[in-house]
Amino acid sequence: MTTGTSAAEATMDASALEAVFDAAVAADERIEPRDWMPDAYRATLVRQIAQHAHSEIIGMQPEANWITRAPSLRRKAILMAKVQDEAGHGLYLYSAAETLGTSRDELLDKLHAGRQKYSSIFNYPTLTWADVGAIGWLVDGAAITNQVPLCRCSYGPYARAMVRICKEESFHQRQGYEALLALSQGTPEQHAMAQDAVDRWWWPSLMMFGPPDDESSHSAQSMAWKIKRHSNDELRQRFVDIAAPQAEALGLTLPDPDLRWNEERGHYDFGAIDWTEFWEVLKGNGPCNEQRLSKRRQAHEDGAWVREAAAAYAGKHGEAQR
Ligand code: FAQ
């Protein structure tokens, strides 16, 4: 849609504005920051983009845990670059949220106060080096499956941020797969370590897609607005269909005795997800919730002097240019 706060728009009443918005969404046009949009559309985007941004920066913690103990210089350099990429994704996403009239400070305050969520997956511990491979393969793999359709989200700044993020996530997924393959084909101990990591990360990765469709409070409206293009269950199924043959190629077993190809459906059937565990993690009762949030708050406090110095520099620089 073209920029909206025009003279013509100023004279339109609410229902006419809504009709223009609905027509733009129906025609698959992009809604841009200065276009008129329903308050609830704006609020949904802020909620989802903030949660996504918070996930990216909290998601740095589980893997950062292994930077000092990566098994080679090559692995260490790759892991540092990946963790840094996640910080960058957070920044693109906070910027996208800011185009909706909120500020990064406000969003971070809400995260630190526990008033906004981040992905359930980052509340699980990284116990061995193989977990870094499993996160790359499964967590980044699930993230890509969920995020590629978001490149077609109706809100322009979010959709454009997702294009670059997805390219980087593809690299992350491949590095995880390659690291896990090396372990799987290594000594029996290394193979066992890879299998143990997959056993622990598989089910939480399936939970990343969100609750089942009949318990997903936002899906119907978000799909009508073309923020989400597919339901949680559709994307979860797509991920299982991709991951099952990849596990075979890796020589690893997915921890689900009910996982099997269903010729009739043209999809893999899979076992029941423990939704009690998912809701408990969301309530703050996962294995690492407390640790993740307190580390994040501490990092924010430790970084205060950097923000102050940057603001002072920007102030001086601005004065010099006046
Ligand atoms: N964790 O009605 P729905 C990554 C909440 S990035 C926590 O279905 P919606 C990169 C949901 O907010 C991973 N909460 O919600 C990386 C809602 O609660 P609310 C993050 C969850 O929004 C890799 C309630 O449950 N990706 O991994 C979760 O329509 C490696 C009801 O749910 C994104 O954020 C969950 N898993 O659909 C980084 C992608 N699922 O807000 C480092 C963008 C649901 O009413 C290392 N987000 N909830 O209090 C989305 O696509 C959607 O927001 C969904 C949820 C699909 C996550």
Average of pLDDT: 95
- The helix count comes to 14
Strand order in space, largest sheet: 1-2
The dominant shape is globular
Percentage of residues assigned to helices? 55-70%
Query: Which structural class is indicated by helix and strand composition?
Result: mainly alpha
Order of helices and strands: HHHHHHHHHHHEEHHH
Any ligands, ions or cofactors bound here, and which?
Phenylacetyl coenzyme A
Termini separation comes to: 36 Å
Stretches with pLDDT under 50, minimum 5 residues? none
Radius of gyration from CA coordinates: 21 Å
Main sheet characteristics: 2 strands, antiparallel
Please state roughly what percent of the residues sit in beta strands, choosing from under 5%, 5-15%, 15-25%, 25-35%, 35-45% or over 45%: under 5%
**Got a strand count?**
2
Overview of this protein structure:
With 322 residues, the chain is an all-alpha fold. The protein has helices at residues 7-10, 14-26, 39-58, 60-64, 73-98, 104-112, 130-147, 156-184, 188-207, 219-224, 232-250, 275-285, 289-302, 304-321; strands at 260-262, 267-269. It contains 14 helices and two strands, in the order αααααααααααββααα. It has a two-stranded antiparallel ribbon. A hairpin with a 4-residue loop joins strand 1 and strand 2. The mean pLDDT is 95. Bound molecules: Phenylacetyl coenzyme A (FAQ).
